[in-house]
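Q: A reviewer asked whether we had any structural model of the full assembly, not just the individual parts. We don't, so I'm hoping you can provide one. Inputs are below.
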Amino acid sequence: MKKFLLFVFMLSFAGLSNAIAQTRTISGKVTSATDGTPLPGVNIVLKGTTNGTATGTDGTYSLDVPSKGGVLIYSFLGFESVQKTIGSSNEINVQLKPATQELKNVVVVGYGTQSKKFVTGSITSVSDSSLANTPVTSFQTALEGKTPGAVITQQSGKLGQGIRIRVRGSSSVTASNQPLYVIDGIPVTSSSQGRIGNEPTNPLANLNYDDIASIQILKDASAAAIYGSRASNGVVLITTKQGKAGKTKINVNTSYGIGHPTHYKQFLNAKQYVTLFMEAAQNSNKIDPSFDYVSYTKNYFNKLSFNTYSDPSKRYNIPWSRHAFQTAYYRKMNISASGGNAETRFYISGHYSNSDGIVINNAYKLLSGRLNIDHQANDKLSFGAKFYLARSQNDRISNDDAFSTPVQLDAQPPIQPIYDPNTGKLNANTLYYNGLLSAKYASSNMIVFHNLSNAYAEYDFMPSLTFRSEFGLDLINQTEEGYAGRETIGNPTGFGRYRYLRNLNYTMNNYFKYQKTLNKVHSINATVGMSYEKADINSSDVQGEGFPNDSFKKLASASKITTGSSSGSGYSYVSYFGRLNYKYNDTYLVSLSAREDGSSRFGLNNQYGFFPAASLGWIVTNESFMKNFKTLSNLKLRASYGLTGNSDIGNFDSRGLYNGTNYAGLSGIAPTQLASPDLKWETTAQLDFGVDFSLFNDRISGTVDYYVKHTHNLLLNVNVPQSTGFSQVIKNVGKLKNNGYEVSINTQNIKGELSWTTGFNISGNKNVITNLGGQVIGNINRAMEGQPIGVFYMVKYAGVDPKNGDALYYLKAGSDKTTNNYSKAERQVVGNPNPKFTGGFSNDFHYKGIDLSILFQYVYGNKIYNAAGVYQSVNGNYYDNQTVDQMNRWQKPGDITNVPQARLFMGNGRQTSSRWISDGSYIRLKNVTLSYNLPRSITSKWNVDRLRVYLTGINLLTFTKYKGWDPEVSESYYSNHISNINIGRNFYTPPQARTITLGLNIGF
Amino acid sequence: MINTNDIKGYHKRVFIMKLIKTKIYIPFTFLLVLFMITSCGKDLGINPQQSIDASIALKTPANVKDALYGAYSEIQQTGVFGSDYDMYSALLSSTNQMFFSGSYQDYLDVYNKRQVANNAFTGEMWDTGYNAINICNNVLSSISVLDKGDQNTIQGEAEFIRGVVLFELVKFYGLPWDTSTNGKANSGVPIVLKPTLSITKDANVKRATVTQDYAQIIKDLKDAESKLPKSNSDGRATTYAASAFLSEVYLEKDDYSNALQEANKVIQSGAFSLVANYADEFNNSSNTSEDIFDIQENSQSNPVSDNWTFYASLPGVGRGDMDIDSTHFIAMYQNGDARKNIYYVGTGLKPGRWRCGKWKVRFTNKPIIRLAEMYLTRAECNFRLSSGVGDTPLNDINKIRERATLPDTNAVSLSSILKQRYLELAWEGKRLDDVKRLHLNVGSLSWNANKLILPIPQREMDVNSNMVQNPGYD
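A: Here is a predicted structure for the entire assembly that you could use as a starting point for your response.
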């Protein structure tokens, strides 16, 4: 009623003002405050009236106003509104500032956005500027060190490989522990789609991260529960760039770089090699007189070295391990244009990058284009679409377990030549298959056409009630093609393979948003809707042999097709969700959210799950009693509790299944899986307490969070006696717990012409499996009760018996007693591959046009097991070249050393033990960027708005005690998915790259 | 996209107009919500496309037959007849007759008789073997589904497979049959005769004794022998395959008269004949006239690849990890013995060493039991029993010698018969059985040494509280 009266009053006022028309004309120009360019389409309204106009293409306007008084309001999307009181002058020129501050203070949450100030959940936010210039192949890698609460590990230095991300620890043992990725509101496929037999790939490497405007990581239940059944591992929300009304901006970003391994591991040279192995053979002769190890070795070395090894002047001394690596060149070109007017805005971009791997035969090329359009049809209806199409080509090398993988070259004895001196061809007479043959005669690549597109429409029923409908698809069209020529192992007539995969994942979201403030103090913000998601995965695989010669590489020329198959799979989700945010007087905040999810993956008895969450916030500094505490500019206390789920298991894990089999043309069936009709969600209950604060007028600001996550009804592959014909059955068994903290602090140390800001973040997580129903899962890495996931469980190495050079092992956990009989020693927990804490430390300096940013990243308290130690650091047990530390072997009674006596073939100290476990902590100079913005006075002469030159270094320095290649490592050759349990292992895994790039950024 | 800045002053009129109009949207909104809720609920039923549900898998005659073929598919795997049985037989029974030159420490440990309980490879036999037994149990529980005419054959085949797999398992994981105690004292392997449909406490099975295992094996094979046809398609089991295996089982427990009878049954059937050239017996793409039971192979179904991988070293083929010793083994063949020519000096990855040519051509059949063995068994048993069932030991041995292009001999002794057996069947997975039943030594280890059997897989020990580890591995 009040409003109606106001309406009548306003109408009559308008009528009145028309009646006494005494007008004058105000004109002027509206420009952008940042670059002075004219702004077309700016709305100009005389305050309190409907009298208004808009600026023309040149930014000018004119408007008739009453002769006396009045205020003009200049508003333009993406800019801060300005009010000008009409004075005596008839000309009013206005500069509008971009609403950057406003954007920064908005965070994307599930199905909407929220003012950062009033968020009660725990969210890590990263904006684009810190990503764009990092020369890596995936945006996840570019985030390392910047995301408190999310630990990002690049598994190896291979390009396009899967990346391990753990948001607040591992919440599952069997189901995936990777977060859910949502791009512009649409959940996308993030797990590897590559074939079994090679390592996991990362479909999100196909995303051009120059297009990313912001990334939000939803960490606590309050933030994530709106994604219900898939939120236990956190949710990564990615928002791509949108155009802003105004002059069209073109941005060119190009960079060039070179990369090398961060570190080279040292192996024996030829002299050391011969010394060690002749000694090993002599020692074995003494132990086992039935066989002449010395003459066997001499014969063998003669064969390997083309009869040169015994003559130091003639023998080869080849550092084989170095031949695995190359100088990696990096090139990138990214062009984008954005702009539009008040009705229609666009962002368009094209990208090309070409990265070489630091290991030979490894490369990643990405070509992509994007078009994002938003259109305001009228004051009620808006719609838009985002199209993204990428083509990536990943030239791949074999998994870490294959002889053909380059890093396994380090096993080759240095006494062998690279080229056969008799034939001049690559040496095929090597101890192990010469991986350089594969580098030369085999190829393998994965080409992906990745389409990520969506369209939306939004309708305002009322200013307070909006309906939004969006449809998105994520289409991966992938081929993997390989050919291995006759010179490679196991392929006497050539071998070709071709695998095709199409993964179509589509989502429909429909939801209402309601926003209303009552009596100025009660603010309500609600969302309710539903979502449907379906994935359809089809693949085929063909392999063949019998190629006429190595010029024919396509299967059309294979005389024998050895494998031909096609398969299909899929899953679906039906979900209903809602969220209610209530705010009282901008001080007291309440948020409730819930999601009901149905999934095709679960047993018919338990297809639906319900995931509620609630949170409270109190902005203490908005209380009147805080008015006098000027030092504290912001203080917000938060608490949340809720349930989230995990459904990331196999699509048909709940079924009892028979699969097809083949016995030389006789096709049959065999049971492969036992049914679990009661299988249901794994549920995580999370409690979070957080504080956001800023001091001294925001000079110091920070966030502190503490959380406890309890996961129960674990989706667990329970080991069963194999005498049943099955090794595992999936059940909801067990519990685990994560608790931890996150602290991030940002300070503005110096403000003004010279500015210096510092950011520091630290996150610690403690994971413990509290109940596995008595199960023990895994072998070397284990999931076991009372321990964090993935602990190393093995016999503990006790060094070397000074009397006889025998390797010694501890008999029992906690006992000092040792034995040289490995079988007598008990296995025990010998290390934890999960870090105690991780984080980053950054400093940014700005002086005139010069910017310098320095980012350190650190990981502390994790252990790494070198699974290749049994071959490469085993005191000359077999002919593999050894790491240089093996020269410290025991030689005579009384020698105190950690390396047992060298005994050829005798397995002295060879069995799996803690001998190859080392500390994996490191601090790394992750990113240093020095850039220079040329002054506008110079660039404007070339019609260029902005010209920036930058030099970026990645992984420049690493401080670590780790003896292997690189401490950021986790081999994953076991499966084509990132393993939950097999963490922190190195098995001929390539190190990370140290890359230096020079880039140029031009805006006009 | 939320535009929160819209409600500026001048919008207020529009805003109020909208408020009035809103009412007509209410039914529309309800319709939308209704659409959203009802449209998608049906779509959670997504079915696998490469699998069928276990509950319907064995409900038709065709499916039960398919499951039997699934059992064949299982026993061709590496962990069963694909290669482990003869690889481990060779590694455990050899000292200087061969050398394992590969880098796989887990194989090398077995060759050195230093294997430990968590050896990464030795558990494979256990795992695949019990998978095969479970498939057979599924088939055997559904025999009534089959047409009457098929029931005997299918049941016989499933019992045959279950019997031979259990026989291999008890030999590798249990101490050898000891005639003095009839195997009673020694732990064998668990006997599982029911299909696993869900996991209950019964899954924690106990080990049977060696005696019980042999009784079950003989029961299965005897029944199979009576039910199986004289010939079968696609290289599947016949009554003679059952007889041939029975002769092996009886021989292993020193039951010479039964072994003799079964071997004689096979020979006298006339269904098989020796291949003229010894070398032609191996690397064939189908059964030869001599083969009683083969693992069938083709390019699409080739788990035997491990055999050529480890034995062969030829251009592009094989790792050449199984080096055959010329002085200590190949020299045992006298000159002119055609069987000597099966050995060749390798090229390829590890050139210059002696290789066994029985396993070198990919995608070819693997003979599991062949007629020559039956002659050798008959000769040995007749000799031991001083009988002449079928033929004299001398004639049987001369048959073997003639095929090896050796001159006939005038007299045979037990040792000459056993030597022919060794040379004829070398590297075919039979030697370890002979070492144990003949109470021979392997280096310094006696026939019943703990290290000549494999540990119960560590994983099985961890999972099954009723499982007891073999002596020497705890």
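A: Points you may want to mention in the reply: Strands of chain B lie at 51-53, 98-100, 291-295, 322-324, 343-345, 354-356, 366-370. The first strand of chain B starts at residue 51 and ends at 53.
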